[in-house]
Design brief:
Length: about 475
């Protein structure tokens, strides 16, 4: 594929979880969801890059998603080369700089395959063939990008105009120019003229070439990223970039920072059955539709409904005499949209954020490294939660200044620490945690522990925690 140069897959997992709200949220963005099969999108992406002679994948992710990503990698028996935590979002150019710096430490001319974690690729043989061509171009000193051959006048993607064929590299071309997302007329003209591809955001490059071009085209990025990497620290199974240094890097995409300025850009046109799943309408397009053009999941009954996407998690969704709708029902939110306006969901989410609502960030079920919890009742001085602790899970040793707690075990075995007492509880047994008591909850069993927690006190916020010990290395801000 690239001579003796090794291929290093690097998977970018950021995202704000706005375009597929309410299923996707900032605490659980789309790449961590199983939207198109049994596996999550990041799991499919990682398995897709298990190519011959490729190194173990390197993952760059949002700090708050680290435990979920590590768990999802364990589920598919993949041990990443590293999971690098970005302390603040800085877009794809600084991420590419991190990837290039890490790979260059072992071999500067090794090749990086930089991919988003939230794309669908249905034709994996075509993907592997495209990687081979792009790696050949990268080995020659080019920065290659995958250009998706368009099959409709899409206005939601940027376009790349193909230039002359690259000598000696069949299937690769120079880049004539990048264009912004077009209006409908321009998109139709691009499709009719030919020679244009959708900009996929997938890149292949030698580490040393990317570092050189960053230095030349976007010189403010590398000093900040070098410092952030030099000051990085190991945190359990993660590598944590230095926050103050990384924050100095400009927040800019790789397209703007390098690809639109470099004379080394190469385009590899391809048809991969690709989608960036950028809206509910695009998810409707790639999912299997019934004879009336509907896509459904969950308890859904339709009568004279056509061309709609309906997802219902916890209740019956019944639609009568409608067409081209998006209906998504979760425990705490209901979205109804015109499918043609699905791109506007992100604008709705921004409005919810300005109103300081919790729904853009968190689901009803909140995931933690030890398990999850869900608030099932909330009053002025009480809160009731369903808590699930995974086998071997262990909450921090903590106390609360403003609340006491009652714990009732529903299923499983709980090991409870309350001040100087340590004891076990089984199903239908309960205990009381007084205000101010140092306490811990653990699951010593081999099955999930389920319990009901009843909190009472003058303040019930998640920040009412004094943390003394924590096996997950978390700062004392969230439970």
């Amino acid at each position: 594929m690239s001579g003796t140069r090794r291929l290093h897959p690097v998977i970018l997992s950021g995202g704000s979880g706005t375009r597929l709200w309410p299923l996707s949220r900032s605490s659980l963005p789309k790449q961590l969801l199983a939207l198109c099969g049994k596996r999550t999108m990041i799991q499919d992406t990682v398995l897709r890059v298990a190519l011959p002679e490729a190194a173990a994948p390197l993952l760059l992710c949002n700090e708050s998603h680290r435990f979920l990503i590590a768990e999802q990698m364990q589920e598919i028996a993949v041990k990443p080369a590293a999971i690098v935590l970005e302390p603040v979002g800085r877009n794809t150019a600084p991420a590419a700089a991190v990837a290039a710096l890490i790979v260059a430490e072992s071999e500067p001319q090794d090749i990086v395959l930089l991919l988003p974690s939230d794309h669908v690729v249905k034709d994996e043989p075509a993907f592997r063939a495209t990687v081979a061509v792009a790696a050949q171009a990268a080995a020659s000193g080019r920065i290659a990008t995958f250009g998706i051959t368009p099959d409709k006048p899409e206005t939601g993607y940027g376009y790349i105009e193909r230039g002359a064929a690259l000598e000696g590299i069949a299937g690769a071309f120079a880049v004539r120019r990048f264009t912004e997302k077009p209006d409908a007329a321009t998109a139709a003209r691009h499709l009719a003229e030919g020679g244009y591809c959708w900009n996929s955001g997938m890149f292949v490059f030698r580490a040393d070439v990317m570092l050189d071009e960053l230095e030349r085209c976007a010189p403010a990025i590398l000093p900040a990223v070098r410092e952030a990497w030099a000051k990085s620290v190991r945190d359990l199974d993660f590598v944590r970039l230095d926050k103050d240094a990384f924050a100095k890097a400009p927040a800019i995409s790789l397209d703007y920072a390098v690809m639109e300025k470099t004379d080394r850009a190469a385009l590899v046109p391809c048809s991969l059955g690709w989608s960036d799943v950028g809206s509910w309408s695009s998810l409707w397009e790639i999912r299997k539709q019934d004879e009336a053009g509907n896509v459904t999941q969950g308890d859904v009954v339709l009568h004279d409904a056509h061309g709609s996407f309906v997802h219902s998690e916890h209740q019956l969704a019944a639609l009568v005499g409608v067409r081209d709708l998006v209906v998504v029902s979760t425990k705490d939110a209901l979205l109804i949209a015109d499918k043609a306006r699905a791109q506007d969901v992100s604008k709705l989410v921004e409005r919810l954020k300005t109103e300081k609502r919790s729904e853009p960030a968190d689901h009803a079920v909140i995931y933690r490294p030890w398990g999850s919890y869900e608030t099932i009742d909330l009053g002025e001085r009480h809160q009731v939660k369903h808590i699930m602790v995974k086998p071997g899970g262990r909450l921090s040793l903590q106390s609360h200044r403003h609340r006491a707690e009652h714990w009732v075990v529903v299923e499983g075995i709980a090991r409870v620490t309350c001040d100087d007492k340590v004891f076990l509880l089984e199903g239908n047994q309960s205990t009381y945690i007084p205000l101010g008591a140092k306490h811990r909850l653990e699951n010593p069993g081999d099955k999930p522990l389920h319990l009901v927690e009843v909190q009472s006190g003058s303040y019930l916020g998640e920040d009412d925690i004094v943390r003394y010990e924590d096996v997950y290395g978390r700062v004392p801000e969230k439970s």
